[in-house]
Amino acid sequence: MIEDFKKTVDFLQKNGFETPEVGIILGTGLGALTNHIDIIQEIPYEDIPNFPIATVEFHKGKLIYGTLEGKTVVAMSGRFHYYEGYSMEEVVFPVRVLKFLGIQKLLISNAAGCMNLEWKKGELMLLDDHINLQPDNPLRGKNSGAFGPIFTDMSRPYDSAMNQAMEKVAANENIPLNKGIYVAVSGPNLETRAEYRFLRQIGADAVGMSTVPEVIAANQLALPVSAVSVLTDDCDPDDLHPVDISDIIATAGAAEKHLVTLFKEVIKTL
Fold first, then answer.
1. How far apart, in whole angstroms, are the C-alpha atoms of residue 265 and residue 257?
2. Angle 261-264-269 (CA atoms, 0-180°, nearest 5)?
3. Hey, is 50 helix, strand or coil?
4. Chain-centre distance of CA 192, in angstroms?
5. Nearest 5 degrees, angle CA 267-CA 173-CA 118?
């Protein structure tokens, strides 16, 4: 795996991915930020040696390198999930590649179900902390020690300075930005009423199927990370209605303008 990793980094460097400053992972239905990048190079995942291939139909699956708000960035348009059948090592493979390409900060977005009844779908949530209920860990295994300590400290998984910048931008731009706790489950099915009650009782405000593995990997690499959820559906167990994935995508798309503004303005400050 280490040799595969080195080959991937070398391939991207030879194809113009030179010392990006900021990495961006774009979640489900949240690809519009790429329209604001002055693209220098883009490569489909299937053309990158050893890179996983996004199998979810609404994830485009390409790596984009360019400039945004005066910074060089590399953006993942499409990410990888445990529920697709990938190992955790494969899920976080791109984060490790981005770090060794040279990124100094990592921004992550995702679509998540809203369990905090004081918030509304279509709003954003800044991740202040998380709960990991996924059944595997990206730091498990004989290869993970090559990227940092396997007993990585997670007392502050999200970078305080970056989160403060997020909150300041949101206030200046009049963007509703809640702050809360994200819980990661394996998926891909959505939760039952009893499961929503359980997740609320253990302290979670939003639930999703991604982000936490990448954040764990970033912390192992000492890579500052900040993450934002778009709250795409209401998860009230006492008034729960069936949700279709197309509705989730539509809600994410409608809220995307706020996420784009937030990320662009934060990148200016990094």
1. 12
2. 125
3. coil
4. 24
5. 105
Q: What is the CA radius of gyration of the chain?
A: 17
Joined tokens for residue 239: 């008034």
- Tell me the per-residue pLDDT of 24-63, one tens digit each, with 9 for 90 and over: 999 876 788 999 999 999 999 999 999 987 666 555 689 9
3-state SS of 141-202 is CCCHHHHCCCCCCCCCCCCHHHHHHHHHHHHHCCCCEEEEEEEECCCCCCCCHHHHHHHHHC
- Cα–Cα–Cα angle for 50, 92, 94, rounded to 5 degrees: 50
**pLDDT digits over 12-32, tens only?**
999 999 999 999 999 876 788
> What is the number of other CB atoms lying within 10 angstroms of the CB of residue 217?
29
Is-contact 251 235, C-beta < 8 A?
no
- Judged by DSSP in three states, 112 sits in strand
Helix (H) or strand (E) holding 127: strand 124-132
